[in-house]
Amino acid sequence: MYFRYVFLLCLFATSLSSQGAEPITKPYKIMMMLYRGETDAEKGFMEYFKRHHIPAEFIIRDAQADNAKIAGFIREARDIKPDLIYTFGTTVTSKVVGVIGDDDPETHITDIPVVFDIVADPVGARLTSSLKSSGRNVTGVSHLVPIAAQIQALQSMRTIQRLGVIYNPQEKNAMLAVQELQTLAQKLALTLQLVPVVLDANQHPSTEGVVAAMRDLLAQKPQFIYIPSDSFMIKNANLVVQEAQAAHVPVFAATEAPIRNDGALLGLVSNYFNVGELAAYKAEQILSKKMVVSQVPIESLNRFTYLINMGAAKKLGIYPPVSLFKVAELVNGTDNLDARE
């Protein structure tokens, strides 16, 4: 049985007149299709509607990292006909709307506006050929900081020659990141040590596969380990960090959760809550401003956060240069670290 609940915001303005109060505005019906539960991106999305007094009913469905559930969400969307669909991540979005050249109205949503959120590379994932206009009934927001900027941020913390990368070979985002890292590494004379997560008998990544991959990677003596933007790796970032810290190797993450919650040392990231708000702004343009979906540009935040986990820094004995204290957000200080230990 699908995990389901309805979050209804009854936000309305009243005005008194000789005729009495005006009727309540009918809320927009928004179906939210998630992959790994509610994140700060969804909180930001819904908070935007509340703060801007836009009446909305949020019908939330969570695949719980099970791709097989997404087809059921599509069938339900056809039945309830929401005003708009919100999708989280590349996996859910590509299964809901299809990709360019493979978007079948029989199996994909083509007649309901879709706003995606937390998609690392919309062009690389073939959701669109242009960020200016998708040419389809879909638009959205990318959260990924350009990888070149991420590596520059890493090198500002510590100059390295060897970068270890653990990734999920079944995840499109991760494979795109690996390809971009390979191109960038050639320009920077950086040695990449690429190790995919070991798959189980059903060709799925597993926690055991993460530990096995980390031990293979650490045997190659990386100077830093990189975690790409990938739902599976984000969910299991604690395993990566535990193995890495035991070997005294710092971890750089492409997203904020592994740094804030799991002890990765640093990253140049987009704040998920703010990304969710930007996605909600796109939804508002479609619902309230009646803009044509395909003409709403796909964008990302124009400011990123240099995030450093000072608890991890203490554990590793690796501290940022003084210059970074002026620009970085510091989280998980020594008090939090001691409490967690």
UniProtKB/TrEMBL annotation:
InterPro entries according to UniProt: ABC_transpt-TYRBP-like (IPR007487), Peripla_BP_I (IPR028082)
Domain of life per record: Bacteria
Signal peptide stretch: 1-20
Pfam families: ABC_sub_bind
Keyword Cell division in record: no
Species assigned in the record: Solimicrobium silvestre
Protein name: ABC-type uncharacterized transport system periplasmic component
Keyword annotations from UniProtKB, A to Z: Signal
